[in-house]
């Protein structure tokens, strides 16, 4: 191919990319209108419930629920259901959230330090720490490379 053809192809590709960059935000803006704020509920916005489950102080968590009820965002029945759910699941959720972050960590020393503190504070047992470290090592150990020799 000649140099002229490469320049034409490059300009066409550049024009297509520019058209795509301009059209995506325009199409996304027209996709759907934002929901009415009165229609946002814990069922349609799980992020709020997740953040509430991460709050470890019951007084603070229930104060947030009371604020939402006072603002008319949830009903009294929903507030009671949320408080009951928080009471039943916040400890387990917080540990699962921390565990997921620990397993994603890249530095084993930091993971061990965090787990040692949790054992010292009585939040987990030594056996649980050993299991988490074993899982971390399995996840972060590179897979062995296999080489096959042809007979």
Fold blueprint:
Layout: H1 3-29, H2 46-54, H3 58-70, H4 76-104, H5 108-120, H6 126-140
Key phrases:
single chain; 151 residues; mainly alpha; 6 helices; 70% helix
Plain-language structure description:
With 151 residues, this protein is mainly α. Among the domains are: 46-89; 105-143. Helix content is 70%, strand content 0%. It has six helices and no strands. It has helices spanning 3-29, 46-54, 58-70, 76-104, 108-120, 126-140. Helix 3 packs across helix 4 (76-104) and helix 4 (76-104) crosses helix 6 (126-140). The radius of gyration is 26 Å and the shape is flat. The two termini are 44 Å apart. The model has no long low-confidence stretch (mean pLDDT 75).
Q: Please give the alpha-carbon distance between the first and last residues.
A: 44 Å
Give me the Rg, rounded: 26 Å
Low-confidence region ranges: none
The description of the largest β-sheet is: none
What is the number of helices? 6
Overall, the morphology is: flat
- Sheet-strand content, in percent, reads under 5%
- The H/E string reads HHHHHH
Integer average pLDDT: 75
Number of strands: 0
- Fraction of residues in helix: over 70%
* Helix vs. strand class: mainly alpha
What can be said about this structure in brief?
The protein has six helices and no strands. By secondary structure, the protein is mainly alpha-helical.
């Amino acid at each position: 191919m000649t140099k002229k053809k490469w320049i034409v192809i490059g300009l066409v590709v550049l024009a297509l990319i520019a058209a795509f960059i301009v059209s995506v935000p325009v199409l996304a803006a027209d996709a759907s209108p934002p929901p009415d704020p009165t229609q946002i509920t814990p069922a349609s916005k799980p992020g709020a419930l997740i953040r509430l489950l991460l709050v470890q102080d019951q007084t603070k968590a229930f104060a947030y629920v009371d604020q939402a009820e006072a603002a008319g965002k949830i009903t009294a029945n929903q507030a009671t259901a949320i408080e009951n759910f928080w009471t039943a699941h916040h400890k387990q959720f917080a540990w699962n959230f921390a565990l997921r972050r620990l397993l994603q960590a890249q530095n084993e020393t930091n993971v061990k330090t965090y787990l040692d503190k949790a054992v010292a504070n009585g939040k987990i047992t030594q056996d649980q720490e050993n299991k988490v470290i074993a899982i971390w090592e399995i996840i972060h150990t590179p897979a062995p490379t296999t080489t096959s020799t042809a007979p």
